Input
Amino acid sequence: MNLSPRSLLPTTAILAAVVGLAACGSSSSSSSPDTSTTKAASQPTAAAVIKTTDNSTLGKILVDANGKTVYTLTNGGAAVACTGGCLSVWPPVILASGTSTATGGAGVTGLTVVTTANGKQVADKGLPLYTFTNDTAAGDAKGEGLSSFGGTWHVVKVGTAPAASSTTSTTTSSGY
Output
């Protein structure tokens, strides 16, 4: 079989186009993820839907769309900003791109949106919401009462004042 450069031209052009399209299509899905703590921690959690669930110890609590318990960080009743290394342990509940409000399930009231260094963050009665990386199962509340990053972490409970005024005892943890 005798192939001339001229007869290979259409085949080469098609092959180049396929390779080019494959590279374009795969660049966004196969590129290395950004491993910076702030960027990774502040990715939106689903559609920022906040709902309720029953916790055997704490009663009815708020969770995100994935069932992860949400917390507030306060000191003396005032919100404390979670920044830097805090975000790798306590990811903020951020609104999805193009969304301007958080959606609350049945029994959820008081949701607001606050603009923080993390983006448009979902808040409960003005206190920014976070999840805890050590909560591995839906409804876990392992971060309740932990003191770290300049304040105390509280699970958001349904039908109570913001957790800052809760009487839950606190545990000091040097690990978080």
Remarks:
- The chain has a mean pLDDT of 72.
- The radius of gyration is 23 Å.
- Helices lie at 5-30, 37-41, 86-89.
